[in-house]
């Protein structure tokens, strides 16, 4: 439905719009109310968690290199899209999410670079401890089956050195918290974007009308690939309560769309299910609100599986410190 200044007031004063608004406002209010209580019960975030890999033999520089590559690739994709279509691409949730992923890798690259600098300074002061930090055999179990008693002592000493390096690390500051929040918001938004695009829009709405462009398809695949690879490598916690920020993110996008239409700046809906004049709009809004839960917890299950199965599959290489 195209809106004009003459009928916009009547359009927005309908009772149905109040129902749609409640479907947006209630989840956001609930998330805002619960977030402070849940955060107080969560363990502190250590600064080292942001730049140390969960793989004990992997130098932090490799994680930095990957994050820098992912950031450069994301910027290149966004730049190509902006050159071709301008700022109007940000009418879509996909580009909002991809921009958020890009911002995450910008934060991650900067913090990893700082972490590598901190690590290099410690290496110069205490080369033996840093060697143990990177190359320790970190099997967290009884080492009585080792070949010799001397090797057992060395492995135990190196393992303790690794854990002391992490545990004694100072807590993350403001920018570290921002990085983790953006990471988890990106994870949920990426799952929602890709599941909606490939499972709903392509089969039922967009395929015949727009076709599939290489850059657009890439955004709906590479966003998840970039984050999943980072998840396999990083040592960051993934507390479930930060789903609240994912809810805030989606509410901000819908509010953005409503403001554009209320002001008459946009006469079409980027996604058909956002059209308030549609007879199925209440069910669409309710369905998309509910979809946030499985999409976020799908990524949470990926992280849970990592912490559950990697220690069994790679007991001498994988270390969980979160």
From TrEMBL:
Q: Where are the transmembrane segments?
A: 12-35, 68-92, 98-119, 181-206, 212-233, 245-271, 283-303
UniProt keywords, alphabetically: Membrane, Transmembrane, Transmembrane helix
PANTHER family in the cross-refs: OS02G0130600 PROTEIN-RELATED (PTHR12242), PROTEIN ROLLING PROTEIN (PTHR12242:SF6)
| Name recorded for this polypeptide | Protein rolling stone
């Amino acid at each position: 439905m195209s809106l004009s200044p003459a009928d916009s007031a009547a359009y927005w004063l309908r009772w149905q719009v109040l129902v749609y608004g409640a479907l947006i406002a209630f989840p956001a209010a609930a998330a805002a109310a619960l977030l402070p209580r849940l955060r107080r019960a969560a363990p502190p975030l250590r600064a080292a968690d942001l730049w140390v890999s969960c793989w004990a033999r992997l130098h932090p520089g490799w994680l930095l290199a990957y994050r820098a590559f992912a950031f450069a690739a994301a910027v290149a994709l966004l730049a190509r899209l902006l050159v071709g279509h301008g700022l109007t691409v940000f009418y879509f949730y996909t580009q909002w999410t991809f921009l958020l992923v890009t911002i995450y890798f910008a934060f991650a690259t900067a913090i990893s670079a700082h972490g590598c600098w901190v690590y290099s300074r410690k290496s110069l002061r205490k080369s033996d401890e840093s060697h143990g930090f990177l190359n320790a055999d970190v099997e967290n179990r009884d080492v009585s089956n080792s070949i010799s008693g001397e090797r057992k002592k060395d492995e135990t000493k190196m393992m303790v050195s690794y854990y002391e390096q992490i545990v004694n690390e100072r807590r993350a500051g403001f920018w570290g918290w921002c990085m983790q929040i953006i990471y988890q918001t990106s994870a949920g938004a990426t799952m929602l974007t890709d599941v909606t695009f490939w499972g709903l829009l392509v089969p039922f709405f967009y395929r015949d009308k727009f076709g599939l462009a290489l850059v657009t398809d890439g955004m709906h695949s590479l966003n998840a690939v970039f984050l999943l690879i980072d998840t396999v490598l990083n040592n960051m916690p993934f507390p479930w309560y930060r789903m609240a920020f994912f809810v805030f993110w989606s509410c901000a996008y819908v509010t953005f769309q409503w403001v554009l239409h209320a002001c008459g700046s946009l006469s079409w809906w980027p996604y058909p299910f956002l059209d308030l004049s549609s007879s199925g709009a209440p069910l669409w809004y309710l369905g998309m609100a509910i979809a946030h839960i499985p999409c976020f917890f799908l990524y949470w299950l990926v992280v849970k599986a990592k912490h559950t199965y990697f220690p069994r599959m790679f007991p001498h290489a994988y270390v969980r410190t979160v």
